[in-house]
Amino acid sequence: MEHSSPAEVNVAEADQVQGSPAVYRSGQEIECWLTDMDGVLVHENHAVPGAAELIQRWVDTSKRFLVLTNNSIFTPRDLAARLRASGLEIPEENIWTSALATATFLKDQVRGSGSGNRAYTIGEAGLTTALHEAGFILTDQDPDYVVLGETRTYSFEAITMAIRLILAGARFIATNPDATGPSKDGPMPATGAIAALITKATGREPYIVGKPNPMMFRSAMNQIDAHSETTAMIGDRMDTDIIAGMEAGLHTVLVLSGITQREDIAAYPFRPNQVLNSVADLKNQI
Ligand SMILES: [Mg+2]
């Protein structure tokens, strides 16, 4: 098993790992954890049983960890408050959003290529705060970038402005590819759907930073000084969390407390390293 890739670990084997210490496939102990939020720690605004204990265990044992979300609406502070209301105490410094990943990516681009630091944004405080703190000037005057994030109130005027600025040469960036987001009344159009509209109007595809782009995980790992050989990713989606975790070289843990059912796994041409019913099963391993 020492050199087995994720694709070689079948689900039956992965299930047998339950109860034994969480180790990377080389046998090294996992030092850092990345975890998805929705469907893993919270489900429909309620904490998943075992999630609070897992987080507490990580905090108590000084494990380096980040809770990842493609949602770019909220700042980490906002999200920490919302999670607290769901029964989860997660320090804001342990939350990593697609907006933070996007701001980090763009800051590196500016530093590495000498690109300008002017950005026109469509989004909410999660995105504007992240870009502002990364040193960007937010403007509709001759921006270097158009950065599209998520909002509950997409404005036709703002979308029109974004289209014109991209046609005039601004580079098109999106925080995440999700086509819809949840609301209490049903699905709402999200970043991916608006990006498709802008692409149709401009003929330009965005560079998308959030999951399943492994860039989201790389920036998260840099943030906590994690290395892929000793880092694990927990998620509930095969097509984002698990594939991106695998491509980033991480130990992958699929939990069945969210969108994926056990019988869905076989349809994918890749496998997680471990499959667990929920994070409640994981807390016994660490
Ligand atoms: Mg999820």
From TrEMBL:
Pfam families xref list: Hydrolase_6, Hydrolase_like
Keyword Metal-binding listed: yes
Chain positions recorded as substrate binding sites: K211
Ligand binding (Mg(2+)): D36, D38, D236
Residues at the catalytic site: D36, D38
Taxonomic superkingdom: Bacteria
InterPro entries xrefs: HAD-like_sf (IPR036412), HAD-SF_hydro_IIA (IPR006357), HAD_sf (IPR023214)
Metal-binding is among the record's keywords: yes
A GO cellular component entry from the record: cytoplasm
Entry's Gene Ontology molecular function annotations: metal ion binding; phosphatase activity
Keywords: Carbohydrate metabolism, Hydrolase, Magnesium, Metal-binding
Cofactor: Mg(2+)
Protein family: Belongs to the HAD-like hydrolase superfamily.
Name this protein carries in UniProt: HAD family hydrolase
